[in-house]
Amino acid sequence: MGDHRIVATDLLRAGERKRLESLAGCREVPSLVSFLSEQFGVRLDTDPDIIAGYARDSSNLPASAQVLARPDNPRDLAVVLAASQVTGIPVTVTAGKSNLTGSATPEGGILVSLSGFQSPAVSVDVATRLVRAPVGMILEDMRRAVVEQSKGGLVYPVDPTSRADATVGGTIACNASGFVPGEQGATRCWVEWLECLLPDGRRIEAKRGQYVSRDGQFLVEGGAVAPLQWPVPRHARPPIKNAGGPFSAPDGVLDLVDLIVGSEGIFGVVTGVALRVEPPPAAVLDLFFSLPDEARAVQCRNRLAKSLEGGLGSLRAFEYFGVNCRRYMDHESVFFPGKDQVAIYLQAPVPDGDVETAAGLWLERLMELDCDIDDAGIRLLDTERTWKQFMEARHSLPAKALEVVQQRGAFTIMTDTVVPADQFETFLDFTHRRLAEERLEYVAFGHLGDCHLHFTILPERDSVVRALAAYDAIVARSAELGGVYSGEHGTGKRKRADFLRCYGPAAVDGVAACKRAVDPGFLLNRNNVISAPEGVTQ
Ligand SMILES: Cc1cc2nc3c(=O)[nH]c(=O)nc-3n(C[C@H](O)[C@H](O)[C@H](O)COP(=O)(O)OP(=O)(O)OC[C@H]3O[C@@H](n4cnc5c(N)ncnc54)[C@H](O)[C@@H]3O)c2cc1C
Predict the structure, then answer these.
(1) Which atom of ligand 1 is nearest to the CA of 93?
(2) 22, 222, 252, 254 - which has most CB atoms within 10 Å?
(3) Hey, what domains does the chain have and what are their CATH numbers?
(4) Does ipTM exceed 0.90?
């Protein structure tokens, strides 16, 4: 059992902390900028054009910041964080800017970009099967480096669609996930070690299992700051795919690594990481097949989950193309040659590398499921051409949907809910009916293996209000059924009401207590997950 006493180290010398204290109460940006530059050699930008290039993220929420810091090492970052605590100026951390929830959108104050965190260089230890990577590195670059440095012997299997834009640190902060169903599809499962700066700038390092809260508390000691009790969130989280809010432990026993992963940067800034990597299967089999309707697709999912050794978690992808997808996909005639309305893409590992035999076995298995799969329509994505067509079809789906709503002068509204498998059909029935009642057009696709579909509503300009109400109703229903509002996109600023609706006010209080202990002014990534209490924002 790990220790609940966390040892933090100060990256600032005692004299430096004292010097910073002379900034107390200083809310004037020019004074802050010149002080940090002259006294600490930390450069801040105030040019609005430069700041604008960093401030807006993929959520498109309005952003504003007075100052931009671009540290490339933990010490300079520690100076900025400590200055924020002394002055009371909020600080927002941004990295790849690919989040959809406004979690990296600044609402005033200092914006810290971590894209300069590019050292030490990525390195793979083949013997221990660990990769250490700088947090500002683009995830796909790290994934490629793992394959190259291990000469194809190891891979990092977490593959969010945004991996060419998202950073290593951003995927840890958001517990990003990809196609692999089950726990192994999400970042949390692979994080072995973290270095993190607390909001006051002190550094902690934690191996998985090293620090574990006791009776719901950590104790943080070390540096020139008095020891502090750090309570952990204790709300119940359903045992399903979940990116909605920080990790929690009803029994009060929580690994520090788990507290940080998925917390959207509200408890600290991740500055170093070691991730587990694994050998890839000898080969994989990629299949795309269509089915008459959603009921058959769900039947197929449930029957496979029962019949596959290791369940759906033994697959590397089990993706769904549901209602209206065929209308919005390129190469419709290739992937939907008949009347079928929905489809599944499946990737299965082939441990012995014999893809041909595996393909034969899978065809038999799919037929035995008795879900009206048309065997003539099963496509093996085994050539560069078919794979390219599939990727084009897949990427054309959100792009075309976006084009349509933009022409309508509106925007897409996308659910990210997950429900327990035994409630999935009830949830789907409710959601389709609700959207039909409102006469809203939508496409449904996503991670069928995890019961995690994205209903993407394409409203007309005058139906946006009804679409938002339908979104709220769908999220509320998912919570009633024991589900969560986010399987991968997280909470950020946009979905704070969803966090409250899903877990209730006691959970908000629990997260607030955890936050307050290390960041009394709610200054770091303020308003992510929960709103800062009114008293502290004045
Ligand atoms: C087209 C598209 C597809 C997407 N597909 C997926 C998908 O398949 N799966 C999925 O899970 N997500 C997906 N996302 C969402 C997004 O890519 C992820 O949430 C990603 O993890 C964000 O990483 P980032 O580097 O862009 O972080 P940012 O967007 O810059 O920041 C996100 C949050 O992380 C915090 N943060 C960033 N770095 C650190 C750090 N080092 N320490 C502490 N906090 C930090 C920020 O403060 C912010 O709260 C998608 C987004 C888009 C636009």
Answers:
(1) 47
(2) 254
(3) 12-115 (3.30.43.10), 123-276 (3.30.465.10), 281-390 (3.30.70.2190), 408-493 (3.30.70.2740)
(4) yes
